[in-house]
Each structure stands twice: as C-alpha cells, then as structure tokens.
Amino acid sequence: MKYPKMLKKGSTIGVTAMSAGVGKKIDEYELSISKLKENGFNIVETESVRVNHFISNTGENRAKELDELICDENIDMVMCAAGGDFALEMLPYVNWENIKNNHKWIMGASDPTSILYYVTTKLDIATIYGHNAGGYDAINLDKSNLISLDYLKGNLVKQESYPLYESDKKSRTMDGYKLDTPVVYENLFGDVDVSGRIIGGCIDVLKDIIGTKYDGTEEFLKRYSDDGIIWYFDNFAMDSASFYRTLIQFREAGWFKNTKAILVGRVMYPNEEFDMSYQDALIKAFEGMNIPVVYNMDIGHVVPKMTIINGAICHVKSSNGKGSLEFELR
Asked: CA 232, 256, 310, 61 torsion: positive or negative?
C-alpha cells in the first residue's frame, strides 16, 4: 500500500467538487474553510466548488478539475468539497494514470466513495474517508473534527467511541454539534479484537459499482489476503430491506473472502421495511459466516464520526457497547 505524504503547516489543500457544489450552504462552507486555514493549511479551490446545484458540473469537467489538482506540484492534498449523488458520472473521465503517478491524499465522505474506492483498490494508494472540506463548519469544533485534522498531519491517535451522538441533524447550528443520545455499539456475534486491512465507504454508493470496471474488490482482497480484511459501511439512507439485499449481493460477489470484521455506522435516515430492522438484516446476512459484526459505530453521516484510512492496517476493539479504531501505515 502506498501512503502519500502527510501535511504540515503551510501545506496546500486543493478543494474540488466531485459531486455537489456548496452554494446552498456557502456560509457553513466558508466557516469550514476558515477552520482549515486556522490549522495552518492553504486552500485552493477549483471552479465548480461554489456552484449552487446538486451537480456542480459535467462529469468530464469535474474530472478535469480533479486532474488539475493532482498534477499541480503546489497542491499537497485533494479534498472533496461536499457529498451528493452523482460522482459516478465523472468516473469514465478521471485520469487514473495521473493519480497513480502523483501520490496525494484524496479525502472525502459519502458520494466521493466511488473515487476513493477505485484509488485504493485499483491503484493501491491509501485514501481518507470521514470528512469533506465543508465538514468543519462549526465555531466550536467537535473532538472528532480535531482528530480528523490531527490525522492530516500524521498524528494517528487511537479513536475511541464517543459518549454521545447527534440524533437530529436539524438541531445543529454553526456553534457546533448537538450531541444528545448515548452511543452504544452493538456486537452482534460477540466481542471484537482483530486487526486487518480496512476498506469500505458509503454503502449507498458501493452498491452501484459492483461488477463494473471500477470494482477493484477482487484484486484488493487477493493482494492483502494474508492481512485479512475489515469492511466498514456508512449507510446514508438505504432502507433495511435494500441494505440486506446489498449485503447478500456483496457476499455472492465474493466481497467477504478473508474478512475479519464488519463495521457499520449509524443510519442517517433510517427506514425499516417488512418488519426487518437493520440489526436483523446484519444477522441474516452474516449468520454462520464466523465474521464479527459491530453495528451503530461512530462511522459515517451521523456525528460524531471517526476518520478512516482506506487501505491501512486497522486494529478494532469493541465490547460492552464501546470500542476503538487504531491505524498503522504499512
């Protein structure tokens, strides 16, 4: 696994809109950028970032803007501006060869999963999942935000489960997160204490690349079979029945070979169909496979959320409703 250089004071982050533009939330975005600058980073934006639309530009133009940042020697890292729904449109136009030859951290959350997944599974370059450039949009940053910034600087502290999470995103203000509900990790098949090579992302996006030329799962699993695999899934709005069917599809496609653990975050917009809970879906999908599953983790859209290094060795522990993640770059 290839690991790009970590950032330092004075490093430049290139922000690009791989999916949606930030125009509808420009005030929050401006606050977030100010926080990145306060942490010593310079910011360069591509043309489409501030577009007020759920599709910031054509897929071809978004790919060109990403390529500009990848090829610019003055840019140290690329960060996605926001999530969205249509990053898949740009995949056919991305210059993967330039990314392969210019190792830079690419970081994003939610819809940029398709880009990150290809870079890590196909090109063997680690990427970062957890926050977009607009994700530091609070006057008082949460501990999870601060840890994310530490990770960019190479300070890979152990991430412990948080005491509370935010049950209603609408309650949030620019002062910070409104954490109001106890965090309880659910270990579905016993306590977990394992290490392995971690990969995953937003499951709403991953389902769309199964079996396509952008699906590097088989080669990734083969490459790191000796390490074993830890999967993490961030469910944005997939209903419980669709979630179950998708897990079955992954299973039948061979995605869970040599799997040591499955980590699943809290669902941002839950919808349980056919009297099937998300926990039921996980139990039905993995029962008898001898794979430990941890549900309701601090991963994904519901804050606070941990920062994940795709492709790194991850040490996972979970018991008694709590847990931790620790990363090793080898």
From this structure: negative
Q: What's the per-residue H, E or C state across 259-271? A: EEEEEEECCCCCC
Q: Which domain holds residue 264?
A: 164-328
Query: Distance (Å, rounded) from C-alpha 212 to C-alpha 197?
Result: 22
The reply to whether the predicted model has a pTM over 0.90 is yes
Helices (H), the chain: 26-38, 59-71, 96-101, 113-121, 143-152, 203-206, 217-223, 240-252, 278-286
Report the C-alpha gap between 30 and 27 in whole angstroms.
Answer: 5
Q: Is residue 1 part of a domain?
A: no
State which H helix or E strand residue 315 sits in.
strand 313-319
The answer to whether 295 and 192 have CB atoms below 8 angstroms apart is no
Tokens of 305: 């959320």
CATH number at residue 146: 3.40.50.10740
Euclidean distance between CA atoms 94 and 89, whole angstroms: 10
Answer whether residue 117 shows pLDDT above 90. Answer: yes
Asked whether residue 80 falls in the same domain as residue 107, the answer is yes
Q: Are 297 and 323 in contact (CB under 8 A)?
A: yes
**What are the pLDDT digits (tens) for 29-57?**
999 999 999 999 999 999 999 999 999 99
Name beta bridge partners: 322: 319
- Measure Cα distances from 66 to 18, 80, 239, 248 in Å: 8, 9, 32, 34
The DSSP letter of residue 80 is: E
Domain count, the chain: 2
Q: Determine phi and psi for 80, rounding to 5 degrees.
A: -75, 140
CA 240 – CA 288 distance, rounded (Å): 20
* Block residue for tokens 């290139």: 14
